[in-house]
Amino acid sequence: MATVVDVHAxxxxxxxxxxxxxxxxxxxxxxxxxxxxxxxxxFLIGGLEALLIRIQLFVPNNTFLxxxxxxxxxTMHGTTMIFLVVMPMSAAFFxxxxxxxxxxxxVAFPRLNAFSYWTFLSGGVxxxxxFLSGGAPEVGWFGYAPxxxxxxxxxxxxDFWMLSLQVLGxxxxxxxxxxxxxxxNLRAPGMTMMRMPVFAWMTLVxxxxxxxxxxxxxxxxxxxxxxRYMHANFFNVAQGGDPILWQHLFWVFGHPEVYILILPAMGxxxxxxxxxxxxxxxxxxxxxFSGIAIGxxxxxxxxxHMFSTGMGPVADAVFAINTMLIAVPTGVKxxxxxxxxxxxxxxxxxxxxxxxxxxxxxxxxxxxGVMHSSPPADLQQTDTYFIVAHFxxxxxxxxxxxxxxxxxxxxxxxxxxxxxxxxxxxxFWLTLIAFNLTFFPMHFTGLLGMPRRTYxxxxxxxxxxxNQLSTIGALLLGLSxxxxxxxxxxxxxxxxxxxxxxxxxxxxxxxxPSPPPPYNFAVVPTVHxxxxxxxxxxxxxxxxxxxxxxxxLLGTSPASELGLPEAGPAVAQRRRLEIHMPxxxxxxxxxxxxxxxxxxxxxxxxxxxxxxxxxLFMGIYGWCYEPAAGEPAVxxx
Length: 637
Description:
The chain is an all-alpha fold. The chain folds into 2 domains: 28-504, Cytochrome c oxidase-like, subunit I domain (Cytochrome C Oxidase, Chain A); 520-579, no CATH class. The chain contains 21 helices and 3 strands. The chain has helices spanning 12-15, 19-24, 28-56, 67-101, 110-128, 157-185, 198-230, 243-277, 284-297, 313-341, 350-372, 375-381, 385-415, 421-447, 464-494, 532-538, 541-546, 550-554, 569-572, 587-601, 606-625; strands spanning 3-6, 576-579, 633-636. Strands 1-3-2 form a 3-stranded mixed sheet, with no helix packed on it. Helix 4 packs across helix 8 (243-277) and helix 11 packs parallel to helix 14.
């Protein structure tokens, strides 16, 4: 039977969650929350690993960590932060916000969406089971051959790394295909591609990058698996193999991966800056096409990671030029963001501060990246702490700060409450100061000759003070993350109620209740501009009247709140709409965990793989034959 829901009432699914409803949910918003919560837990784990690294390097010749433990820490830190933190944090915003931004009731494939989360979780758990099974991976997040061969890592540590990355790749591809179809096919009527919010555009570009880049590392990991399990010798020089082949396969994936990590943050900043500058984004088409250009060009720069391998002058020159050229569309974005703020009425809320911080820190990381495009300079800097400083300015100063801006910006929409602005300002300034104290000195330690991935150093290098500054900064940075966690926990219970559109935003997500109902929009909106809410509220009266949204369009907010003239008594009559949403399903988590069990069985026992295979097929079978639609909800307007 149908359920009657008042469109203005808080959705019951958020009031009484229940663990079973979270396990079986296919609601894109709940999956987004699951992604974000899990990624934040891994963020705390990866941060703890980083602190252990910095404590080891606090003084010369330290014995806090052994060489083996140090190798495990930097491998797990890098792998965790790349695959289990930044990517799933971006996926959390993809899941929760993209359907709202494009005026859709759900994603194209809700159960595939749930499958992607549970597969991601099983891959992350499999990777961390290595701590309980004889030792964590110790080959770096890049896994250079021949370090991955049985000769150099004879235990199972590399197997955990290799198999978990393959499981995580399945999760990423499932999510990418889902969002490609969602954005292309489920946009609201009237929302042309050039009326889409920039964050939706960057999600689209990122999804294409995942679809095109992940097959390369999948092939490489399969070759590693053949080498380890079947002695295939793809990377064994003595048997005619080539370890440089792994570097090509890895970096054909690895450099687009950098933009998979940074483009979502760029999209978030492109949403935050206009809202808090009270101006439309300057040069919207240029920002969009520069993002597309970055995605295309990212596949032509991978070998700048390999200048020290002796590729020859022609290859070096080609990849150096391409690396310099990819800085152009990135610089274009930065100028557009600055122009958006120029002359605007700036409202320096915490989200805006993190967006500005993103721009400043990313400029520093970008400038040092251009330095690496020159092969002679790169030969001096490669495998030193200068490189560590560079990519942390890009991935923490860039990606993490951009994602944090998104958290402060969209938290009211997700939960219906504000994050504390007072705690938020403390969080921002402590993060900015601690981040620069941690990583800026690494430019100098690198240029002075300190190699990365080395567990200790001697007194004769005179690098003690710089390393101590970095360690103190890392401890303060960890404190800033704990402050953010406390802000979230406190605000969930005591935060100020936010209302539907607390920032006076211009895009569709601000036109529905906070938190959104399961069906998002009672009536799918029709869009006539790239800034529909501002177009209604601040546009010319005759222009607003020609495409008024009101209750009938958005199914949520009174016309008076949208700045529209009231339409008379007829609008006040309540209507009943029947909305069909996908039913919850246990089969996506069954399928995801079955895949993880299959991979784990290759390490522990073939019996586990057989059980995992049966579990996988049981999940797929049930998935295929269960009814897709649940009981309809009748919404009273």
